[in-house]
């Protein structure tokens, strides 16, 4: 099962941020732009890291920002943000982070297939540096093996 | 055998850890039940687990346990999971 289509609004390339909070906020902004979440979800994603630390940096250079399902999640969504300058999240092995994924799900069960597919994509260690170096949305989609949503296709 | 994959909120990262831990166990030909959970649930879900897989950031939050705590640096690196699970279970 491939990942669901990724709207252009859910992708941000070469974003300038000051710190990890800015990086997570950028992933939250992209989720909001694509209609998946409301701003409260972005605050909750930052809150997860405030509470539990930088464990969301699950691989070298990659953070998977997320929070629990809630009323601020309208539809399941994924966003992809690449940073112009990598930032430290405070992880002992995987800093600095240059790619931030934002993940929003509406229930604990439905996301298992989505996450399994993410694992498939990122089991290839070349994907993270290639995403960080990508300069256009089509390259990002191609690396993730996803399409644009039907309304964006010519 | 029971293995717990732990993250802060019990979705997302712990689910990725669970998926890749199952791939590592298949490669090792070990049968085990892998459960994803959050910090709040690890006491009840993890009490009879043999291994708890997690990030170095969350080790303190686990508290007292009889399980082996195995810290995974790269959640997408099945080779790392294979090597560390083999050590913990061997």
UniProtKB/TrEMBL annotation, chain A:
GO terms for biological process: phosphoenolpyruvate-dependent sugar phosphotransferase system. Keywords: Cytoplasm, Kinase, Phosphoprotein, Phosphotransferase system, Sugar transport, Transferase, Transport. CDD domains: PTS_IIA_fru. Residues 4-147 form the PTS EIIA type-2 domain. One of its GO terms (molecular function) is kinase activity. One of its GO terms (cellular component) is cytoplasm. Pfam families: PTS_EIIA_2. Its main location: cytoplasm. Gene3D superfamilies: Mannitol-specific EII, Chain A. InterPro entries: Ascorbate-PTS_EIIA_comp (IPR051351), PTrfase/Anion_transptr (IPR016152), PTS_EIIA_type-2_dom (IPR002178). It is found in: Cytoplasm. It comes from the Bacteria. The phosphoenolpyruvate-dependent sugar phosphotransferase system (sugar PTS), a major carbohydrate active transport system, catalyzes the phosphorylation of incoming sugar substrates concomitantly with their translocation across the cell membrane. The enzyme II UlaABC PTS system is involved in ascorbate transport. This is Ascorbate-specific PTS system EIIA component. It comes from Cryobacterium fucosi. The lineage of its organism: Bacteria, Bacillati, Actinomycetota, Actinomycetes, Micrococcales.
Automatic annotation (TrEMBL), chain B:
Pfam families: PTS_IIB (PF02302). SUPFAM superfamilies: PTS system IIB component-like. The keyword Transferase applies. InterPro entries: PTS_EIIB-like_sf, PTS_EIIB_2, PTS_EIIB_2/3. Residues 1-90 form the PTS EIIB type-2 domain. The keyword Transferase applies. This is PTS sugar transporter subunit IIB.
């Amino acid at each position: 099962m491939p990942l669901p289509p990724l709207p252009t609004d859910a992708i941000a390339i070469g974003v300038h941020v000051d710190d990890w909070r800015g990086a997570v906020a950028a992933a939250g902004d992209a989720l909001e732009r694509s209609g998946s979440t409301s701003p409260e979800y972005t605050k909750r994603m930052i809150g997860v890291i405030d509470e539990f630390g930088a464990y969301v940096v699950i691989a070298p250079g990659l953070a998977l920002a997320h929070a629990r399902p809630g009323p601020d999640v309208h539809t399941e969504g994924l966003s992809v943000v690449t940073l112009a300058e990598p930032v430290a999240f405070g992880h002992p092995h995987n800093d600095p982070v240059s790619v931030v994924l934002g993940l929003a799900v509406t229930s604990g069960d439905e996301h298992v297939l989505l996450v399994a597919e993410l694992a498939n994509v990122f089991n290839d260690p070349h994907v993270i540096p290639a995403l960080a170096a990508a300069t256009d949305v089509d390259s990002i989609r191609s690396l993730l093996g996803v399409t644009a949503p039907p309304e964006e296709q010519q | 055998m029971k293995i717990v994959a732990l993250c802060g909120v019990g979705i997302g990262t712990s689910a990725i850890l669970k998926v890749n831990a199952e791939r590592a166990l298949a490669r090792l030909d070990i049968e085990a039940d892998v459960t994803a959970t959050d910090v709040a649930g690890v006491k009840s879900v993890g009490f009879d687990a043999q291994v708890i897989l997690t990030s170095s950031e969350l080790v303190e939050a686990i508290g007292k346990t009889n399980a082996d705590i195995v810290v995974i640096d790269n959640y997408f690196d099945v080779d790392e999971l294979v090597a560390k699970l083999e050590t913990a279970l061997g």
